[in-house]
Amino acid sequence: MKHVLGISIVLIMWILFAYLFQNTIPLPNEVFLNFVKIFGKQLFTPTLQSISLLFSGLFFSIIIGVHLGIYMGLSKRGNKLLDSVIYSIYPIPKSALLQVLIIIFTSMFWMKSTLIFIIVVFPVIITVKDAIRVIPKEVFYHAKSLSLNKKQMYKDLIIPAILPNLFTTLRISIGNSIAVLYLSETRGIGSGLGYFIDSSVVSNNLNMFTGIFVLSLIGYILFILIDLIEYKFCKWV
Amino acid sequence: MIEIKNLSFGYKSNELLLKNLNLIISKEQKISIIGRSGCGKTTLLMLLAGIISDYEGRIIINNENLTEMRSETGVVFQNGGLFPWKTVYGNLALGLKAKKVDRIEIDRKISRVLKDLGIDNLKNKYLKELSGGQKQRVAIARTLVLDSDILLLDEPSASLDAFTKDNFQNILLKIYNKYQLCSVLVTHDIEEAVLLGQNIVVMKDGKLEKIIDNEELFGKKDIKNQISFYERCINLRKTLE
Prior knowledge:
With 237 residues, chain A is mainly α. Chain A contains nine helices and no strands. Chain B is α/β, with parallel strands linked by helices.
């Protein structure tokens, strides 16, 4: 129900803006029809390219970010060692890093994927580290008294403790990732939805909006997915 | 049985918080430790739990030197120390699963203990759905399912309101009577110390100031003893002043 209401609000706003800027913004139904018409021919490959990029960036940032965050959260030495590294790299504007990555990487896919990785990994590390640090010490005492092995410690204590915050960070990061995805796809040898949108700006306004619609749809589906996973694994929140 | 021999401990090497403590707590004995804030009573409990292990002297539990935490020593902390991401059942089953107890036995033990504590209706609830008193009962249940021989309680009713506290203390008395436990309760509440301790250990400046025998009062509820109870509270208060 909340989704229907939310989508209705977006559609109403879209229609209002479409009437206000009649020659610039197409109506939702025009975009939907165009989406059905061109998806198989022109949009499928760029969508696939963008999704692969997004998923590879998110996948590596979650895997590496969670591990580093846990290491920093559990080990004072690890925290001391990596804290300053993270705090010094994290504030660098990511658009500035894009130029560096273009020079370093010969593969455009990995260049773009690395950029998404860099954007997502730092918030993940910081979130996981902080989530571990606020686990009450009494919980660790109990786990210790039960002589839980490493696998049980992760399964029964660490992972459940970090999950809610991790999902929140992922939600925020998805928005940032899609923004950077667009930016990166318009650089170098263009590909994906970013390039599709960019190349349609002058030639085909309707295609441009259809591309934006698909980007928004990808983000929306990812948010729904995170909601579902959170509902399944964080019933205690 | 717990034997404390020449126990000294300080968080800083040059400043001892506990100074040369000697105490024997026999099997199934229930003691209350009372004293002003900062006198070292919670630290003593942490040492008995094996949470802190770099102490001087000896702590012997059932004829074995205490060097690390034991699964048979149950600790109930002020905030429960439960896993909020697990249901009541999940919290209780965790230790049994770690001990590789089979599923049927886990279910049987959990059902029995929850029934004893009057919370069998909360089995599938998460902690966010429980009141403070219920959480503390779950924390006790968690130690009972593991067949603990020692129960350490660190101000378990400190955050409870008067009515819930009363109820919680009655449950504890019931548990004391039913389960063969050696119990150490740390509290700053004089009435609670008198009500729940066969012996009351008064701590002052890191030393055991006094050990008061309270046994004949334990568990009795008639009017005569109620009067005696308050007399004892008054006497204990005077001792602390």
